[in-house]
Amino acid sequence: MIIDELPDRQYPVVVVGTGFGALFFVHKLLQLQPATKVLMLERGPFRSWETQVAEGHNSHIRSDETFKATGIPKFWNFTIAYGGGTNCWGANTPRMHPNDFRQGTLYGRGQDWPLSYDDLEPYYSAAEQIMDISGPDDLHRITPRSLPYPQPPHRLSAVDRIMKTAQPDMHFALPSARSRVATKQRPQCCASFDCEHCPIGAKFTVHNGFAHIMDATNVLTLVEAEVIELERSSPSAISGVRFRWRGREHRVGCDVCVLGANAIHSPAILLRSGFDDPLLGRGLNEQLGVAVEVLLDGLDSMDGSTISTGANYAFYDGPFRAERGAIFMVFDNDFPYGLRKEFGRWRQTLSIRSAIADELNDENRVSVNEQGEAVVHYVGNSAYTERALEHYLEHLPQVLAPLPVERIVDKGLRRTQSHVQGTLRMGARPADSVVDDGQIHHHVRNLVVVGTSVMPTCPPVQPSLTAAALSLRAADLMFGAQS
Amino acid sequence: MMNRRTFLALGTAAGGAIVLGTALVVDGYRRWVMSVLRDSLPGHSFEPASLARFIDEYESLHDEARKFRLFGAAETLLEARSLLPQRTAERIHNEERQVLTEFLVGSDFFQNRPAGVKTITYNGRAVVCRSPFAVFDL
Ligand SMILES: Cc1cc2nc3c(=O)[nH]c(=O)nc-3n(C[C@H](O)[C@H](O)[C@H](O)COP(=O)(O)OP(=O)(O)OC[C@H]3O[C@@H](n4cnc5c(N)ncnc54)[C@H](O)[C@@H]3O)c2cc1C
Ligand code: SF4
C-alpha cells in the first residue's frame, strides 16, 4: 500500500528501495510470513505505467543528477522511481553461465561467487515463474534448469533460424520477460520496439507483476522518502533508518534492514552510516557494450516476434577467459539504424549488441563527499575487456559465416549497458567481500543487501534475473525453514 | 562613417536576407526529405497532405532533423554531397535511412495498400506494434 503519511516508529522489516532486489526479497518474505509488517522507503516518485508511457520517461529524476562524478566521464543509467529498474529495463533475462560462478578457480580471473549455479538454480526457476519468462528449453544445454520456461520462446528471425541450424549448441532464442503469449497481467509483445516505455505493457514491471505487494495492507511504501543513513545500536546490529521526506528528516526503527538502493546509492548509504569495510563501494562495474550492423546479401529478416530474438554463446565460455573477457551476443529483430535505403532490401540488415565482461577494478568506486553526496570515481574498463573487444571485432565474421554477410559495420561502443553492479560484493570472507553468501553483512547481522550491488564479478549477461533469484534465496535463507 | 540612411538600408537588406534565408532553409529541408523519399521509392508518389504531415511530425520529433535543416537546404541548393567529408556523408546517409524508415513504417507501404496502388499514404507515427515484418505465429 502506498502511504501518504509518516509510518509507525518501528517495523520488523524496513526495506530501502523498491527495485528488483527489494521487490523479489519482499515477495519471498510474504510467501514465507504473509503477515509480517514491512515498510519500504523509496526515494523516487510513484508513477503509473500510463504516466510513464504518456510522458516518455520513467522518472523525472535523471540518474546522473543523483551523484557526483570524477575521472573518466561515464553514463550510469538507472531509474529512481517506485519499482526501480523494473520500469526501464528491456526485459532480457538470460541466466548466468554455471562457470561464471567459478571464474576465479577455473580461469584465475576475479573471485568465485560464494554460491554455485546449482545453489541458485531453484531460485532462477522461481524468478522465471514469477516473471512469466519466455525462453527455449534447449538452452538447458548451456544453463541447466529444473523447470521448463513458463512461456514458449519468442519466434526466431530468419537470421536466427540460419544461425540455429548452423550452430545448434551456440545459438538460442533469447529468454525474455516480454510476453510471448498473453497472460492475465500482460498482453502479448507485438514488437513495438520501445521497451523502456512499452506502449502496451507487454514486459514485466512492478506495476503488472507485483500488484500484490502494492496492495498488501501489511506492506507500506512511502515514496519520495530518501534514505540517508542506517543507525546502529551496536557494532553488529542496525536499529533504525534515517530518511528525508517532505523536506524533513525522520527515523524509523527496524529489526531487519534490507538495503536495495542500487550499486551506487546502497554503498553511499553505508558510507554515510560510518561503515568502513575495506571493499565497501569498490569494484563498480558494468559490461562494455559494442554494437555492429550486419548488412545482409539477399536475406530478408526481422520476422521474429519481439525486439531481440537471438542469443549467441560463441564468445562466452572457454579457457580463453583466462586472457580475455566473456561476451554475450544479442541478435536484434528491430531496425535501430533504420531500414535499408535500397529498394526492396529494407530488412536485409541485422543489429547485434554484444556485452563484454569487465574485470573488477577497486579504483572504480563510490565514495561520499563532505555534503554526504554519492561520488562515482571511474578510471575505465580493464585491459581484459579491451582484449576481448579486439578479438571480437576480428573474429565476428567467422561466427557469422553461416549468414550471407555483405558487410559488417562497426557502430562503436555503447555509452552504457544500463547495468550498475558491484560495490557491495558477496563472498566467503570479510577480506574479499562485504556480505556473505546469504547477502548478510559480515558483521552487521540484521542487514541484508539486495540487488546487483552484491555481484562479485561482472558476467556478460544482463543481471536482473540473477538479482531477482538472489533475493528470493536471501529471503528464504533468512525467513524460511532453513533459517 | 555610416549615416543613418545607409544604416537603415543595410538593416532592411540584412533583415530581408534572414527572412529569405529562413524560408530557403525550411523549404530546402522539405525538398530534401521529399528527394530522399522519391529517390528511395522510385515509381511511387505520395499523398500530398499526408506527406506534409509526415515532414512536420518528423521535424518536430527528431532533434537530429533540426540539425539537418541547414544541410537539407545546402544539399538541394548546391548539390553539396560530393564535397563532404566521409563522416558527414555517413551521418547524412544514416539520417536518410531514419527519414525513410519513419515514413515507411508509419505509412500503408508495407501493409493495407491495395494492390497496384502506387500512391503511398502516411497514416501517422507508428508507436504500437511498430514492426511491419514481425511474425507472431507460435
Ligand atoms: C534502460 C534500461 C534497460 C535495462 N535492460 C535490462 C535488461 O534487459 N535485462 C536486465 O537484466 N537488466 C536490465 N537493466 C538493468 C536493471 O534495471 C538493473 O539491473 C536492476 O534494476 C538492478 O536492480 P537493483 O535492485 O540493484 O536496483 P534498482 O532496480 O535500480 O532499484 C534501486 C531502488 O532504490 C531506490 N533508491 C535509490 N537511492 C535510494 C535512497 N537513498 N533511498 C531510498 N530509495 C533509494 C531507487 O529509486 C530504486 O527504486 C536495464 C536498465 C535500464 C535503465
Ligand atoms: S518489443 Fe514492443 S511490445 Fe514488446 S515489450 Fe518491447 S515495447 Fe513492448
Keywords:
heterodimer, A: 483 residues, alpha/beta, 11 helices, 17 strands, 22% strand, B: 138 residues, two-stranded parallel ribbon, 2 strands, globular, disordered N terminus, binds flavin-adenine dinucleotide, binds iron/sulfur cluster
What's the gist of this structure?
By secondary structure, chain A is α/β, with parallel strands linked by helices. Chain A has helices spanning 20-32, 49-55, 85-88, 103-107, 117-130, 158-166, 206-209, 211-215, 262-272, 383-399, 464-479, and strands at residues 2-3, 10-16, 38-42, 68-71, 171-173, 219-223, 225-234, 237-245, 248-259, 288-296, 308-312, 327-332, 349-356, 365-368, 374-378, 405-413, 447-449.
3D architecture notes:
The complex is a heterodimer of chains A (483) and B (138). Chain A has 483 residues and is an alpha/beta fold. Chain A has one domain (10-482): FAD/NAD(P)-binding domain. Chain A has helices at 20-32, 49-55, 85-88, 103-107, 117-130, 158-166, 206-209, 211-215, 262-272, 383-399, 464-479, and strands at residues 2-3, 10-16, 38-42, 68-71, 171-173, 219-223, 225-234, 237-245, 248-259, 288-296, 308-312, 327-332, 349-356, 365-368, 374-378, 405-413, 447-449. In chain A, the strands form three sheets. In chain A, strands 1, 2, 3, 6, 7, 8, 9 and 17 form an eight-stranded mixed beta sheet that branches. A six-stranded antiparallel beta sheet of chain A has the order 5-11-12-13-10-16. A three-stranded mixed beta sheet of chain A has the order 4-15-14. In chain A, helix 5 packs across helix 11. Chain A starts with a strand and ends with a helix. In chain A, 54% of the residues are buried. The model of chain A has no long low-confidence stretch (mean pLDDT 97). Chain B has 138 residues and is an all-alpha fold. Chain B has one domain. Helix content of chain B is 63%, strand content 3%. Chain B has four helices and two strands; from the N terminus they run αβαααβ. Chain B has helices spanning 4-40, 48-61, 63-78, 86-105; strands at 45-46, 119-120. In chain B, strands 1-2 form a two-stranded parallel sheet. The longest helix of chain B is centred in the N-terminal third of the chain and has 37 residues, at 4-40. Chains A and B meet through loops of A and helix 4 of B. Iron/sulfur cluster is lined by residues 178, 189-195, 198, 200, 202-203, 306-307 of chain A.
